[in-house]
Design a protein that fits this description.
Layout lengths: L2 H29 L10 H13 L7 H27 L6 H23 L11 H25 L19 H6 L1
Helix pairs in contact: 1-3, 1-5, 2-3, 3-5, 4-5
Length: 179
Amino acid sequence: MTDLVKNLAIGAVSGCLATVPMSWAMEVMHRLLPTRESHPLPPRLITEHVMRTMGVNRELTDEQKIWLSLAAHLAYGAGVGAMYAPLAHHSESAPLAKGTLYGTAVWAGSYLGLLPALGILSSATKHPVRRTALMIAAHLVWGSATGIFVDMMETRRKREHFDFLGARRGTPRSEKQHA
């Protein structure tokens, strides 16, 4: 397996896994919104838009729509996660910093660019401030988790417990003590 294919696979798995804590964070923060701002979150809105476009929205139950929304959200997380891993190798920054920056870029690219351009959602600049803050925070969770997961799965260098957070680089403490 080539390094690129390995990196894409590691990134896809990491992005998919990172979507779990992101979705949980979105749900928790969503419950804190005022009632007038607590309409369905973007994964559900996006999925319903696509289903309406395909003409299948009325054929599915609410429960099926929820599960389809979750599956689509996990798939999108995997897709953008796959793009992260090869990029991460070009920076010596801490995984947490790289992932957080990437999560912010994914939010901006999706909510200020792709989704409005496709006519799926209006630009985030037109959304209520608290909902936009919720989505940015959720993408920070996703990005940081993706960065950590990619680093944990990366096998090129030996790690010790805190190394994946970027807290310490270089010679592990145990090797320094024996030197």
